[in-house]
Amino acid sequence: MELPKRAGNGPVAVALEAGKNYAWCACGLSQSQPLCDGKHRGTGMSPDVFTAENTETKYLCACKATGNQPFCDGSHK
Ligand code: FES
Question: How many separate domains does the chain show?
């Protein structure tokens, strides 16, 4: 499996809606960071699909080094 590509140097704020599904880009190739746009095809990687628990703004990882995906854990530093 390839390593994910670093897609940014800090998290991206995303306004999540409770009960809605989101696909966080795990490969780093998406042009719609931090969410998947299908460019992972052929990499062996796949997005992390999650359901928002609350309607709130969350900081999603763009560096792809987080240990708490899809959320930023400060690993970009
Ligand atoms: Fe990166 Fe889908 S484009 S996981």
Answer: 1
